[in-house]
Amino acid sequence: MRHRWLLLATLTLFCLQAACSTAATTGRRGTLLLIGGGLDDDHAPTYRRLLELANGPGLATAKMGPQIVVVTAATGPEEQEAIDKTEALRTWCWSAGVEVVRRATPTAATVAAIDRAGGLLFTGGDQQRILARYRPDGQDTPEWLAMQRLLQRGGVIAGGSAGCAMMGELMLLGGSSAAALGAPTADGSTPEASTRLGPGMQFLPWAITDSHFFERQRIGRLVQALEASGRRFGIGVGEDATVEVDLATGTLRGLGTAASLLIDAGHLQREGTARRRLVARLLGDGERVSLAELQRTPGPAPRGPVARPFVIEVPVVEPGQNRQLASWRMFHQAATPNSGNLWRLQLDGWRILAWAEAPGVVGFDVEVGN
Q1: Rounded-to-integer distance, Cα 64 and Cα 96, Å
Q2: What is the spatial distance between Cα 76 and Cα 190, in angstroms, rounded to a whole number?
Q3: Residue 353: HSE in the Cβ half-sphere, 13 Å Cα cutoff
Q4: Where in the chain is the domain with CATH 3.40.50.880?
Q5: pLDDT (tens digit, 9 = 90+) per residue, 241-251?
Q6: 118-129: per-residue pLDDT in tens?
Q7: Integer Cα distance of 89 and 208 in angstroms
């Protein structure tokens, strides 16, 4: 019996040490849900996960059920979005306590609501409105500090569209991929490549995020944002897709049937107007990638589009979903490790060349031109 108790105590200590080691990997706590936009009320994986995380250990209150604050600062028609998201959350969990804070909600009331909550849900619209209200000029406002406390007690912050774009230390403010890359305009002029970047809400330390990613062909502008900022990772989240970020371990996990893309610019090279040696990993439902592990072991530079037996053009039919999801199709096809093909997608003044590097890993270049 004594040996059994010693064994149990040893195993318990080992588990506690392992848990502490995991939590100490980054020195952070909490979870982020990056929602790519177009979140419908029936998107079960996202709503269920948000409610589950908001009701986690250490977040229980005297009230029954998870406590969620809907933050509508980014949205134009705030009342409409407040009703929609409140009803959606209560549909998935009738006992959920839902509060709404608007742009005009006083600071004291906003802080009190956040301190009662296990989770926040930022609605879509214009991400600059979020920063103007809760972190103007990089200030640590009482509301922002309350959000940090929420994460530190193990809570969750979710954001759709603009609420996804504002998550990082830097955020994209707008613009197309063609403009960001400096692609020729309709009149034949060639503007200088430029990216509209500004300070973000600083919830996510490792990456720049973008939303509506495949549907609005935003790969080029995210690549340019990484180049301009010197940041290594970009997370492009598709519509009806969600990426869960465990802040304690730096692990990403895809949620839902739609996919997202993790871009690694650790080996990026600039050749004229081309950006080369980029790496991408698709994040489908349940697929995981550890940013902490990638940072420790960056891996070799991609081989480049050489000695490929076939160059396959990805067809684009306008308008409609075929064009919207052309880049998604290309990355899925290029991820097949045995094809050995080079996939090429021509867009408006710029193109993507992609090839398989390893199972689930795609190398790609971005070039300017038709």
Answers
A1: 7
A2: 34
A3: 20
A4: 26-296
A5: 999 999 999 99
A6: 999 999 999 999
A7: 28
